[in-house]
C-alpha cells in the first residue's frame, strides 16, 4: 500500500499503471466506512500477490486530486490501467464484493506469468540471445494463447531465425480470422518473401543480375517484384520499398496490387510499437492535472522513416 499525494501521483499511479493495475482508494480519517474498507483492501493486495497495487489518497489533504476524479463521496475506489480509469465503486464493500470487482478486470495468474516470460524474452533479445528469447516467448504463448502481442513477437522472431514451418503454424489461426489484423497479414507477406527467396530461379540471383535485367526492361515487373521480395527476405527494407515504388509508379494495379500490399506490410513491420508512456498527454495525468512541465517530444528515426515512405506511397497512389 502506498500513500499518494499530488507530488508522487504521476509516478505511483499514472506511470505505475502502465505495467500493473492500480487501485486508488480515496478516503479520509473521519470516514467510518473508510475504516472498515481499508483493511479489506490491504489484505486483498497481499492475497492477490502483485496482481494490483493499492494506493491511498487522503481526499481532505489532496483536494486537487479528488476534484480531478470527481469524488463526491468516500470511500471511492478507482481502478487505473494504462494511465486511465477503468472502473470503480463507492461505499463500503465486503471482501467478496471487492474480489468480484477485481477479478472482472485483473489478469489471471497465467496471464501474469506469460507477461513475465514475454518481458524476459525482450531482455534476452537485447542481451543478444535470440534463441533463449524464442523459448521464453513460446512459454508465454503457451500460458496465454490469446495474447496477440506475444504471438506477433514469437512469429516475427521465428521468421528471423529461419523457423519458417513453425512460424506458419503459429500464424495460421490469425490468418483465418475475418477481418485479418494488419500486423499478422504483414508477417504473412514477410514469411512468403522468405520462402520465395529459397526457391528457383531467383534464389541464386545476385542484385547485379536483377539490375542488369531491369536496365534492359524497366517494365519487367516480375523481375522487379522478385528483387523486392528477396530484399525484403534479407531485411533490406528500404531497398525493397524503393523497388516496390518503382513498380507502383509505372503500374498501380499490376499483379492485383501486390507491390502496394507488400509495401504496406513492410511499413507495418517497421512501425515502432507505441511507448506505454504515451498513453496520456505529456505533462498531464489521466485526470488532466498539470504535474509536469512541457516536454519536448522528438520523433524516433524509424518512425520518421516509416512516415516518409507512407507519404511516398500515398503520392504514388494519388
Structure description:
- The chain is an alpha/beta fold.
- Among the domains are: 2-107, 3-Layer(aba) Sandwich (Glutaredoxin); 108-176, Serine Threonine Protein Phosphatase 5, Tetratricopeptide repeat.
- The protein is 58% helix and 8% strand.
- The chain has helices at residues 9-15, 32-47, 63-68, 95-105, 109-126, 130-143, 148-161, 164-175, 182-196, 207-216, 221-233, 237-250, 254-270, 301-317; strands at residues 2-3, 22-27, 53-58, 76-81, 84-90.
- A five-stranded mixed beta sheet has the order 1-3-2-4-5, with helices on both faces.
- Strand 2, helix 2 and strand 3 (53-58) form a beta-alpha-beta unit.
- The longest helix is centred in the middle third of the chain and has 18 residues, at 109-126.
What features would you highlight for this structure?
318 residues, alpha/beta, Glutaredoxin, Serine Threonine Protein Phosphatase 5, Tetratricopeptide repeat, 5-stranded mixed sheet, 5 strands
Q: Average pLDDT value?
A: 89
pLDDT < 50 stretches: 276-297
H/I helix tally: 14
CATH homologous superfamily caption of one domain: Glutaredoxin
Structure summary:
With 318 residues, this protein is of the alpha/beta class. It is built from 14 helices and 5 strands. The protein starts with a strand and ends with a helix.
Topology readout:
Elements: E1 2-3, H1 9-15, E2 22-27, H2 32-47, E3 53-58, H3 63-68, E4 76-81, E5 84-90, H4 95-105, H5 109-126, H6 130-143, H7 148-161, H8 164-175, H9 182-196, H10 207-216, H11 221-233, H12 237-250, H13 254-270, H14 301-317
Parallel strand pairs: 1-3, 2-3
Antiparallel strand pairs: 2-4, 4-5
Amino acid at each position: 500500500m502506498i500513500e499518494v499525494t499530488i507530488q508522487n501521483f504521476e509516478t505511483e499511479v499514472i506511470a505505475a499503471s502502465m505495467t500493473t493495475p492500480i487501485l486508488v482508494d480515496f478516503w479520509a480519517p473521519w470516514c467510518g466506512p473508510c475504516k472498515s474498507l481499508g483493511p479489506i483492501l490491504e489484505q486483498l493486495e497481499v492475497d492477490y500477490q502483485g496482481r494490483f497495487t493499492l494506493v491511498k489518497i487522503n481526499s481532505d489533504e489532496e483536494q486537487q486530486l479528488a476534484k480531478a476524479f470527481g469524488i463526491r463521496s468516500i470511500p471511492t475506489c478507482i481502478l487505473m490501467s494504462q494511465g486511465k480509469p477503468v472502473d470503480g465503486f463507492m461505499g463500503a464493500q465486503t471482501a467478496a464484493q471487492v474480489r468480484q470487482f477485481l477479478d472482472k478486470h485483473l489478469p489471471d495468474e497465467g496471464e501474469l506469468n506469460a507477461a513475465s516470460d514475454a518481458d524476459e524474452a525482450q531482455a534476452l533479445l537485447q542481451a543478444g540471445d535470440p534463441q533463449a528469447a524464442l523459448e521464453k516467448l513460446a512459454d508465454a504463448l503457451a500460458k496465454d494463447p490469446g495474447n496477440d502481442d506475444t504471438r506477433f513477437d514469437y512469429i516475427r522472431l521465428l521468421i528471423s531465425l529461419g523457423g519458417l514451418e513453425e512460424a506458419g503454424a503459429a500464424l495460421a489461426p490469425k490468418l483465418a480470422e475475418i477481418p485479418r489484423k494488419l500486423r499478422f497479414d504483414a508477417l504473412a507477406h514477410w514469411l512468403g518473401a522468405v520462402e520465395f527467396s529459397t526457391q528457383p530461379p531467383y534464389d541464386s540471383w545476385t542484385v547485379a543480375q536483377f539490375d542488369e535485367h531491369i536496365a534492359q526492361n524497366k517494365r519487367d515487373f516480375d523481375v522487379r517484384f522478385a528483387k523486392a521480395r528477396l530484399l525484403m527476405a534479407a531485411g533490406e527494407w528500404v531497398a525493397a520499398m524503393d523497388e516496390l515504388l518503382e513498380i507502383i509508379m509505372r503500374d498501380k494495379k499490376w499483379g492485383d496490387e501486390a507491390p502496394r500490399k507488400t509495401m504496406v506490410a513492410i511499413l507495418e513491420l517497421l512501425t515502432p510499437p507505441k511507448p506505454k508512456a504515451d498513453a496520456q498527454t505529456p505533462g498531464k495525468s489521466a485526470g488532466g492535472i498539470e504535474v509536469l512541465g512541457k516536454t519536448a517530444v522528438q520523433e524516433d528515426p524509424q518512425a520518421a522513416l516509416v512516415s516518409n515512405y507512407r507519404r511516398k506511397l500515398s503520392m504514388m497512389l494519388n
